[in-house]
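In this supplementary section we document a worked example of the pipeline. Step one takes a protein sequence of length 158 as its only input; no multiple sequence alignment statistics are reported here. Step two produces a three-dimensional model, which step three serialises into structure tokens for compact storage. The input and output of this example are shown verbatim.
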Amino acid sequence: MSRKRIGRPSKLTPEVKKRLIDAIKAGNYIEPACRFAGIAPATFYRWMERGARASSGEFREFWEELTRAEAEAEARMVAQWQAQIPQDWRAARDFLARRFPERWASKDKIDLEHSGEVMQRHDTSRITEQLAKDRDFLEAIQRAYESREEGDLLSGDA
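The serialised model returned by step three reads:
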């Protein structure tokens, strides 16, 4: 006898899974891949978290396939980049700068100086007006309270 699952069905259908994995294999970022598959990025990240924690099951399988798709996309792009190195020295420079930044990244340094005074101006007129209104209102309440203590409000003249 099989147990029925309680709750709504998972959005992780074979079609959604295929669309996500295909988009990631093509080199897309997560958010556009999620839009392509018709799910919210938050849903994707929950699935990935569940898959990373699980030792088996649909979410673990999804996590493994998606992680592999990311690695495939990266490996394919690196291979294409390296294929350009013989034709374009800049491809080699860019590859080295990104792969080994401590040795090959550009060490350009930009110095920015400012002389003079930094001025900050704030328009406080609306706040000042509101504070004056609040002060008038509080004074009116205070007068009413004092009048009540003197019995003026209890006489029915108010």
